[in-house]
Amino acid sequence: MKARVHITLKPGVLDPQGKAILQALGHLGFDGVSDVRQGKFIEIELDETEPNTAREKLASMCEKLLANTVIEDYQIDLD
Q1: Average pLDDT for 8-18
Q2: Could you give the residue ranges of the DSSP H alpha helices within the chain?
Q3: Residue 73 bridge partners (DSSP)
Q4: Is pTM, for the whole model, over 0.85?
Q5: What is the C-alpha separation between 58 and 4, in angstroms, rounded?
């Protein structure tokens, strides 16, 4: 089973990389961009066939390693 994990900063957490990207886009002539928030995208291939079990394993991975849950949120999508 293939899983996709999207990790983003929680609302209110400062995002200096997002601000740098926003500034660079402006310098490159891309007008109309008012905000940029950057994050992480991780694809994981699991040998699990049960979606609920896969989701539990992935949530544990996020809580223990993939995401800093103090400042980041995560979303899990399964195929």
Answers
A1: 96
A2: 16-27, 51-61
A3: 8
A4: yes
A5: 10
CB 77 within 8 A of CB 16: no
Residue 18: the pLDDT is 97
Q: Model confidence over 30-73: pLDDT tens digits?
A: 999 999 999 999 999 999 999 999 999 999 999 999 999 999 99
**Residue-range domains of the chain with CATH:** 2-78 (3.30.1280.10)
Tokens for 1?
């089973």
How far apart, in whole angstroms, are the C-alpha atoms of residue 74 and residue 76?
7
Provide the b/e sequence for 36-73 (b: ≥16 CB within 10 Å).
eeebeebebeeebeeeeebbebbeebbeeebbeeeebe
Residues in the chain: 79
pLDDT at 14: 96
Residue pair 71/13 in contact (Cβ under 8 Å)? The answer is yes
